[in-house]
Amino acid sequence: MASFLNPNVQLDRFDGTNFTRWKGKLFFLLTVLKIAYVLDPNLQPLPEPNKDKDTDTLQAERKKRSEDEVMCRGHILNTLSDSLYDLYNTMKSPKEIWNALEYKYKAEKEGTDKFLILKYFEFTMVDTKPILDQIHELQILVTKLRELKVEISESFQVGAIITKLPSSWNDYRKKLLHRRDDISLEELQKHLRIEEETRSRDQKNISQNSSKVNIVEGSKFKKNFKVSH
């Protein structure tokens, strides 16, 4: 909490991405500063100034809210990228800025949800890239979905990875699917790493043996050629 109150500590600027994370961090800061209440949609407006009816308490409350709104607006604008700052700087009310950002990027987030979910389901593994590297790409999508409050269970992730293995892994896929015990994500990656290393080593041995055969056959050809000559 003390670090948030330190003027030298600044939040990452919002540039149009990761709205949910930015919003959560900023709202926490505003809460610590006790000024987040000015963004409450149910906050009742104060009466217009009236010299005859205003009490000292009401005047003090009006002054405090005005100062809190100025501070809240400043914090919101200060965490925006330059382009977004220029776009929203014309709005005088922090609630107006907050609602405008919420309306724009919440809608985009919902579209992002659908896009990332589609990308996750359509993700296909290939033989030309290491399997674990591709699993890492898939896990990045899972992390992004989690940030958007879309949870994918570990058992589902395990099943998805097995299903997405390249066709050259069909026999190994069947082996995994016929396991009677459940397997964790970490265990699956360990098994796949061992299997990939084994395949790589076998392929290397095949290539070396093939090279040796070519050398022997080449030597025989040269020998026969000399004899016939």
Write up this protein:
With about 230 residues, the protein is mainly alpha-helical. The chain is built from nine helices and no strands. The chain folds into two domains: about 1-110, no CATH class; about 125-229. Helix 3 (about 55-80) packs parallel to helix 5 (about 95-120) and helix 5 packs antiparallel against helix 6. The longest helix has about 45 residues, at about 185-229. The model is unreliable at about 1-10 (pLDDT under 50). Pfam families: Retrotran_gag_2. This is UBN2_2 domain-containing protein. It comes from Acer saccharum.
Q: Could you list the spans in which at least 5 consecutive residues all have pLDDT below 50?
A: 1-8
- Count structural domains: 2
The rounded distance between the terminal residues' Cα atoms is 92 Å
For the sheet with most strands, the description reads:
none
Query: What is the assembly state of the chains in this entry?
Result: single chain
What is the percentage of strand-forming residues? under 5%
Q: Number of helix segments?
A: 9
Summarize the structure.
By secondary structure, the chain is mostly helical.
Give a topology summary.
Elements: H1 2-5, H2 19-32, H3 56-78, H4 82-88, H5 94-122, H6 131-147, H7 154-164, H8 170-177, H9 185-228
Helix pairs in contact: 3-5, 5-6
Biased composition (Basic and acidic residues): 49-66
Protein name: UBN2_2 domain-containing protein
Region (Disordered): 46-66
